[in-house]
């Protein structure tokens, strides 16, 4: 009788544990993530996948993230995918919607820096201090923001170091800041995504293209871009987001939201930057080993870019005020001071 009772008790304990496990499984939340880079890209392997793992670990498996096998829309539509809930989490480039994100233009101007981790941390702190309540960002929970450590000028056939070298040359570019910059320098901007750069360069449609160093390698442009002009503080930059649908975020339990808060925000933004800080020097080393030409922009070219930047900032201050930023200059000064401090640590 005692043995039977013991077996009955053990069976009841096992059944209770099974029911508890089943209840936890049924209450688990699976979030969908839409991404537009291939699964071999470092953003996928070194940033997005670790993010999914951190969320699952932080919530003890109660919240998991599934990266969809194919993007649900083109890259410029990924903010809307998150805002409207078509996908729970997305990432993308603020530059793809320049009119919506006028407030972010300041971080894409020349001289924004070349330390991507410091940039990304500084941009997160700036977002939290000045932009979190801006109407442009309504409808999402911002998980991270990031930058890529300074884009540079690349040419297929010659070394470009002076304003005269840039004049009348056709450069592929990807956004309005780059367009204004090239136009002011007397170059001919040609808008196209980076994925089109190879065929445009090979066919002679453009003479050069704007990229980070890692982008030259990751888009396999080594054979068509052999001359690289380096601006010590960056020729231009780009701003990125990782965002979650606001309603989906609100629907998570308080415990899970608190757990996820520990792996997003400034630390996730820093992780974004660290990946680019690893990729850019590695790409430079590969290009140097292949015999590519590297040259620093001359003081004359840097001065020309600085003058253009000053005009850009003045114009942006007025545009940002119209976009709901109370004191754009103070926000820019905050970013610059924060970046300088972080980069020096």
TrEMBL record:
Signal peptide: 1-28
BP-aspect Gene Ontology terms: transmembrane transport
Residues annotated as transmembrane: none
GO cellular component, one term: periplasmic space
Keywords: Periplasm, Signal
Signal is among the record's keywords: yes
Compartments, as annotated in UniProt: Periplasm
Protein name per UniProt: TRAP transporter substrate-binding protein
């Amino acid at each position: 009788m005692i043995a039977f009772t013991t077996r009955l008790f053990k069976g009841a304990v096992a059944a209770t544990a099974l029911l508890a496990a089943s209840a936890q499984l049924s209450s688990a939340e699976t979030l969908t993530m839409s991404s537009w880079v291939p699964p071999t890209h470092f953003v996928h392997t070194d940033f997005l996948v670790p993010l999914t793992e951190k969320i699952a670990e932080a919530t003890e498996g109660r919240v998991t993230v599934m990266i969809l096998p194919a993007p649900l829309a083109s890259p410029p539509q990924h903010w809307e995918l998150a805002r409207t809930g078509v996908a729970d989490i997305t990432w993308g480039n603020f530059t793809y919607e320049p009119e919506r994100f006028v407030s972010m233009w300041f971080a894409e101007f020349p001289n924004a820096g070349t330390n991507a981790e410091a940039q990304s941390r500084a941009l997160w702190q700036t977002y939290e201090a000045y932009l979190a309540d801006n109407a442009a960002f309504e409808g999402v929970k911002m998980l991270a923001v990031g930058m890529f450590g300074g884009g540079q000028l690349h040419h297929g056939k010659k070394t470009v170091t002076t304003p005269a070298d840039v004049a009348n040359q056709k450069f592929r570019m990807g956004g309005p800041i780059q367009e204004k910059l090239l136009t002011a320098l007397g170059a001919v901007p040609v808008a196209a995504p980076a994925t089109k750069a190879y065929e445009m360069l090979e066919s002679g449609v453009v003479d050069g293209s704007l990229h980070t160093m890692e982008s030259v390698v990751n888009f396999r442009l080594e054979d068509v871009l052999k001359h690289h002009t380096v601006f010590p503080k960056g020729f231009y930059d780009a701003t990125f987001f990782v965002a979650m649908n606001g309603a989906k975020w609100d629907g998570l339990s308080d415990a899970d939201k608190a757990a996820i808060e520990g792996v997003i925000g400034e630390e996730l933004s820093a992780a974004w930057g660290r990946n680019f800080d690893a990729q850019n020097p590695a790409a430079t080393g590969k290009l140097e080993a292949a015999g590519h030409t590297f040259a620093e922009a001359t003081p004359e070219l840097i001065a020309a870019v600085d003058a253009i930047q000053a005009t850009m900032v003045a114009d942006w201050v007025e545009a940002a005020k119209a976009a709901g930023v109370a004191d754009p200059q103070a926000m820019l000064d905050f970013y610059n001071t924060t970046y300088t401090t972080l980069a020096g640590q």
